[in-house]
Design goal:
Strand order of the largest sheet: 2-1-5-4-3
Keywords: Cell membrane, Disulfide bond, Glycoprotein, Ion transport, Membrane, Transmembrane, Transmembrane helix, Transport
Largest sheet: 5 strands, antiparallel
CATH topology of the domain at 18-116 and 161-309: Growth Hormone, Chain: A
Family: Belongs to the organo anion transporter (TC 2.A.60) family.
Shape: elongated
Membrane topology: Multi-pass membrane protein
Oligomer: single chain
Radius of gyration: 30 Å
Structural class: mainly alpha
Subcellular location: Cell membrane
Strand content: under 5%
CATH superfamily of the domain at 18-116 and 161-309: MFS general substrate transporter like domains
Helix content: 55-70%
GO molecular function, one term: bile acid transmembrane transporter activity
Distance between the termini: 26 Å
Length: about 675
């Protein structure tokens, strides 16, 4: 018989220990949610500035896609190692190291701004208010013909081909750091969370993964409004506005913010324990700690003995394999839609990059946040089982798919640019573009320079010279042009800097597109949590960490890396006019064929998602015919606890009963 005094001391000690465990659980959930916010903040911010990087470094969309996919390359380097071996190490410490590594990667990405000369955009118009040069006008009496510089050293300095590699390497490092957060964080939660609470916890984490992009896109919208070299150049002398396709915003500023946030998010994990007990089993601390010590010793003897059996078990799991195929196809479509959405909205609806990024944050990400919360709440409230979750996920995702098809109706025509998309008379052209015509052929114009002006006939021209303008007035963005021979108008033939704005009909189409995007985002996110729980519940407890890691590995190899690259190649084929550097080499694309761009952007993603419903439907059929016993989240730890409880009941039955009863009364 154990003395009462000894029991009281044990009781107090166990109550204090349980209080610490509860605090650690809450601390871990909060810290992991902050880590989700920080990692998705930096990822979404980079997605929002891809067009800025394209213009800053004069890259093709293919290379920009490579930069975007380099994050997944970093993931591949460590994902399997971290997912499998990380569960046997100090998981919170590994997550902290990952957050700090992501911060270092973001800082490295911002370095080119501090190593490069100020940004110089393509223009013939003088950028200084005190210049008297007017060689950007139609000079009919001049015999000089403009030629491009062919000095190799000038070409090298202008292209700055090596600077974008900093962004590429920084993104790889950021991908390496992100590797540990999701698989180790989810496996840590699954270890201590009750079965009915797990969907709500994961829903909270996924909500954090949406709050991050929301903040990231708003930060991107704010930074893109500011000129890249703000503080070092006089913005009053600029001849471009944020709506111009040559504008580059302060992309580097947001990356510095992301670096700081990532480092700070890793600090709380440094103070968390290696593991936590299952909720409801805290009364057996001695048993759990003893078993943890025994497991650690066994793992050190042979840490890889069960790797191949686990891999075999995963690939023999029909539901897991079909879910993997579905995820790869869906993720291909998602990467295309999400990565190129700002560029699509800019080219399709004629809005600025800053406005496009802001609208994405408001109309796309806010509904997703509510959808994740609602999905997690429904799973917990109605105690949805695996079959029901599969039905919900499939039906909601299919509804979202058909809703997305309506986006094909929200169309705008190509921006009318004389010599590119329409003739100088304003008619559509179906032949090779020809920017030289009778009204400007004797003006000695540079026919490849992109310095657009908008005529008072609502037709854009590639430059004031190609519009046949012979005089100008004003400075900076307020500069205007007169006596333009190519502009056919009942009024005085004049023009102003920049492309002509979109029509009211196109603005209305933008509103329809945003409404469809908001509804689609909410419905898709509502199906995400049930679908993910089908994935998790199809795995045995020992398979979860490796299963999640392998899922991330495959989606990155077959979707995250190739999708932005191959779609970037397709986008480059729709370019109507490439920018021209001083040395004559092509720069970034200035204008795309919006019809072909729309067909590729919406059509390819629709095909990929449509094919993905074949394996998804097979999952539903398999679960429909399969008998599923009452779902349990019992882990190996729980079984060990139960076994050792039976052994110790005979030794100290009264003491254990007293302690457990007192703790249950207390809490």
């Amino acid at each position: 018989m154990v003395p009462p005094t000894s029991c009281c001391h044990q009781l107090i000690k166990r109550i204090a220990r349980q209080n610490d465990r509860v605090f650690d659980q809450e601390m871990f959930l909060l810290a992991l949610m902050c880590a989700y916010i920080s990692k998705t903040l930096s990822g979404s911010f980079l997605n929002s500035i891809l067009t800025q990087l394209e213009r800053q470094f004069n890259l093709s969309t293919t290379l920009v896609g490579l930069i975007n996919g380099s994050f997944e390359i970093g993931n591949l380097l460590l994902i399997v190692f971290v997912s499998y071996f990380g569960t046997k190490m100090h998981r919170p410490m590994l997550i902290a190291m990952g957050c700090i590594t992501m911060g270092i990667g973001c800082f490295l990405q911002s370095l080119p701004h501090f190593l490069m000369d100020p940004y110089e955009y393509e223009t013939t118009v003088s950028k200084t208010s005190n210049s008297s040069s007017n060689d950007f006008l139609c000079m009919r009496k001049e015999t000089q013909i403009f030629t491009t510089t062919e000095d190799p050293s000038e070409c090298t300095n202008e292209v700055k081909s090596s600077m974008w590699l900093y962004v590429l390497v920084g993104n790889i490092i950021r991908g390496i750091g992100e590797t540990s957060i999701k698989p180790l964080g989810i496996s840590y939660i699954e270890d201590f969370a009750k079965t009915e609470n797990s969907p709500l916890y994961i829903g909270c984490l996924e909500t954090g993964a949406i709050i991050g992009p929301l903040i990231g896109f708003l930060l991107g919208s704010y930074c893109v409004k500011m000129y890249v070299d703000i503080g070092s150049v006089n913005t009053d002398d600029l001849t471009i506005t944020p709506a111009d396709t040559r504008w580059v915003g302060a992309w580097w500023l947001g990356l510095l913010v992301c670096a700081g946030v990532n480092v700070l998010s890793g600090v709380p994990f440094l103070f968390l324990p290696k593991s936590l007990p299952k909720v409801g089993l805290e009364t057996n601390m001695n048993i759990i700690e003893k078993d943890e010590r025994n497991e650690t010793k066994a793992e050190k003897r042979d840490i890889t003995i069960d790797f191949l059996p686990l891999m075999k078990s995963l690939f023999c799991n029909r539901i897991y394999v079909l879910f993997l195929v579905t995820s790869i196809l869906q993720f291909n479509a998602f990467v295309i839609l999400f990565s190129f959405l700002p560029k699509y909205m800019e080219q399709q609806y004629g809005i600025s990059a800053s406005e496009a990024i802001f609208l994405i944050g408001i109309y796309n990400l806010t509904p997703v946040c509510f959808g994740y919360l609602a999905g997690g709440f429904i799973m917990k409230k109605f105690k949805i089982n695996m079959k029901q979750a599969a039905y919900i996920a499939f039906c909601m995702s299919l509804l979202d798919y058909f809703l997305n098809m309506l986006c094909f109706l929200t169309v705008c025509d190509n921006s009318p640019v004389a010599g590119l998309t329409v003739s100088y008379e304003g008619y559509n052209v179906n032949m090779e573009s020809n920017v030289l015509t009778d009204c400007n052929i004797d003006c000695n114009c540079q026919d490849k320079i992109w310095d657009p002006v908008c005529g008072n006939n609502n037709l854009s021209y590639m430059s004031a010279c190609l519009a046949g303008c012979e005089a100008y007035f004003g400075t900076g963005v307020n500069m205007g042009f007169q006596n333009c021979s190519c502009i056919k108008s009942s009024k005085n033939a004049s023009a102003s800097l920049g492309l002509c704005g979109s029509t009211p009909a196109c603005s209305l189409m933008l509103q329809y597109f945003l409404i469809l995007s908001a509804l689609s985002s909410f419905i898709y996110s509502l199906a995400a949590i049930p679908g993910y729980m089908v994935f998790l519940r199809s795995l045995k407890p020992k398979e979860k960490a490796l299963g999640v890691g392998l899922h991330m590995l495959c989606t990155r190899i077959f979707a995250g890396i190739p999708a932005p690259i191959y779609f970037g190649v397709l986008v480059d084929y729709t370019c109507l006019h490439w920018g021209t550097l001083r040395c004559g080499k092509p720069g970034a694309c200035r204008i795309y064929d919006s019809i072909n761009f729309r067909t590729m952007y919406l059509g390819l993603s629709a095909i990929l998602r449509g094919v993905s419903y074949v394996p998804a439907l097979l999952i539903v059929f398999i679960l429909r015919k399969q008998f599923l016993p009452a779902e349990s989240n019992t882990t190996v730890m729980e079984m060990v606890v139960k076994r050792q409880e039976n052994e110790e009941k005979e030794i100290n039955k009264q003491s254990v009963y007293l302690i457990e009863n007192d703790i249950q009364t207390k809490f």
